[in-house]
Amino acid sequence: MGAPRPPRPGHRAARTHGGVPSGVLARIPAGPKFGFLFIASLGIYAVADLFVLSAVFVLAVTAAVLTRTPLPRLARLLAGLVLIVGIVVLTLGLTTGWVAAAVSGLRLLSLCLFAYAVSLSTSFSEMLALFERVLRPTRHLGLNPAQTSLALSMTIRFIPEIRAKYLEVREAQFARGLHNSPVAVLVPLIVRTLESAQEISDALDARCFDSAPAPGRAPRSTTTAPAPPPG
Amino acid sequence: MAAQNPQTTQNTVLVAVFAALIAALGLVPPITVGIVPVPITLQTLGVMLAGALLGPWRGMLSVVVLQVLVLAGLPLLAGGRGGLGVFLGPTGGYLVGWIPAALVIGLLVQHWALRRTGSTARFLAMLLSTVLGGIVVIYAFGVPWTSVVTGLPLSTSALGSLVFVPGDLLKAVVASLVAVSVHRSYRRLLGGVRTAAR
């Protein structure tokens, strides 16, 4: 797996993961960008003209370049997609016709480039803030915002933990001669994970994590919205 | 409220932990084969396990949590993929299908497979649940999606996906073995607490 390389001094602004996205597109708020993507995804499928789609494709490439992502990283992101699209174009070209193949290929590439441009020019926290805004009405359906953000942040925290545990268990099973047995690795991994989940939820409860706001009491979160009606 | 609180926290933690498990299983590099190459990853194994071990709602929620993070741009899918492009691409349906897959597996396991008494019957029921949810449901989303997005005929898309059936069957077997064995040592995971509450 590609270990994160230390950022080169000249490319400080170009980092995206963990860093701050830069470029013109980063200044547009996430909401309009999502709106554009939604309209683009409908529009691209409504148009079948090769000339228009080529123009849209050029626009999409420009958008991807405007995110100022380093080219090797962009290439790595797109490699799998280009492979799939290439095969689709080849299959379509041989079975249906090359115009249909080109239309399909351009559509897919443009749409995915637009989507990557939105992803690469929007910071992770900005995205989560947008989702939170979109999901706010679900509070009335019984979804607790505090629980949701706890789940999201805890997941990110846990990935390296579980990976380390996985490697640990696998090493132990290698030592026992259980080389390629996924069951022998997964069962202890999951049992240990469940045990630590139990410990963590006990710890959270011991610290009175305010998960379900009691009726009649304002939730402890920072939102200024009124508490949901009881019942 | 005081009695309900620990249960809620515990469920949230379980959902988060399983979302992380599915993501961690994606750190194994993917294999790509076939006409319409969807990479073979261990992540669908994680989806099967989430449904089979946590039940329908918590299992589905852990898939949703993972996908929200992917949608927000974290490279949590196999091969370091992530972001909006993955969902809009030709294989997005297989990804969206994970959500109903976990739900279906959870429902089948909780209400049917875990009620079997013999160990062979239980394993076979578990296997059928993971196959139905983890293969039939996911393909039911993925195959038409690829066909609609690319313009390929449905039959070509279905033919291309057949390449992955052997790998997925293998994953269903592994998931069933693991699920049966974990349920044996952790009975309260789906059996005791949940059914008593209803």
TrEMBL record, chain A:
<protein>
    <submittedName>
        <fullName>Cobalt ABC transporter</fullName>
    </submittedName>
</protein>
<feature type="transmembrane region" description="Helical">
    <location>
        <begin position="34"/>
        <end position="66"/>
    </location>
</feature>
<feature type="transmembrane region" description="Helical">
    <location>
        <begin position="108"/>
        <end position="131"/>
    </location>
</feature>
<keyword id="KW-0812">Transmembrane</keyword>
<keyword id="KW-0472">Membrane</keyword>
<dbReference type="Pfam" id="PF02361">
    <property type="entry name" value="CbiQ"/>
</dbReference>
<keyword id="KW-1133">Transmembrane helix</keyword>
<feature type="region of interest" description="Disordered">
    <location>
        <begin position="211"/>
        <end position="231"/>
    </location>
</feature>
<dbReference type="InterPro" id="IPR003339">
    <property type="entry name" value="ABC/ECF_trnsptr_transmembrane"/>
</dbReference>
<feature type="transmembrane region" description="Helical">
    <location>
        <begin position="78"/>
        <end position="102"/>
    </location>
</feature>
<dbReference type="GO" id="GO:0005886">
    <property type="term" value="C:plasma membrane"/>
</dbReference>
<feature type="compositionally biased region" description="Low complexity">
    <location>
        <begin position="211"/>
        <end position="225"/>
    </location>
</feature>
TrEMBL record, chain B:
<keyword id="KW-0813">Transport</keyword>
<keyword id="KW-1133">Transmembrane helix</keyword>
<keyword id="KW-0812">Transmembrane</keyword>
<protein>
    <recommendedName>
        <fullName>Biotin transporter</fullName>
    </recommendedName>
</protein>
<dbReference type="GO" id="GO:0015225">
    <property type="term" value="F:biotin transmembrane transporter activity"/>
</dbReference>
<keyword id="KW-0472">Membrane</keyword>
<dbReference type="GO" id="GO:0005886">
    <property type="term" value="C:plasma membrane"/>
</dbReference>
<comment type="similarity">
    <text>Belongs to the BioY family.</text>
</comment>
<dbReference type="Pfam" id="PF02632">
    <property type="entry name" value="BioY"/>
</dbReference>
<feature type="transmembrane region" description="Helical">
    <location>
        <begin position="121"/>
        <end position="142"/>
    </location>
</feature>
<keyword id="KW-1003">Cell membrane</keyword>
<feature type="transmembrane region" description="Helical">
    <location>
        <begin position="84"/>
        <end position="109"/>
    </location>
</feature>
<feature type="transmembrane region" description="Helical">
    <location>
        <begin position="162"/>
        <end position="182"/>
    </location>
</feature>
<feature type="transmembrane region" description="Helical">
    <location>
        <begin position="35"/>
        <end position="54"/>
    </location>
</feature>
<feature type="transmembrane region" description="Helical">
    <location>
        <begin position="61"/>
        <end position="78"/>
    </location>
</feature>
<feature type="transmembrane region" description="Helical">
    <location>
        <begin position="12"/>
        <end position="29"/>
    </location>
</feature>
<dbReference type="InterPro" id="IPR003784">
    <property type="entry name" value="BioY"/>
</dbReference>
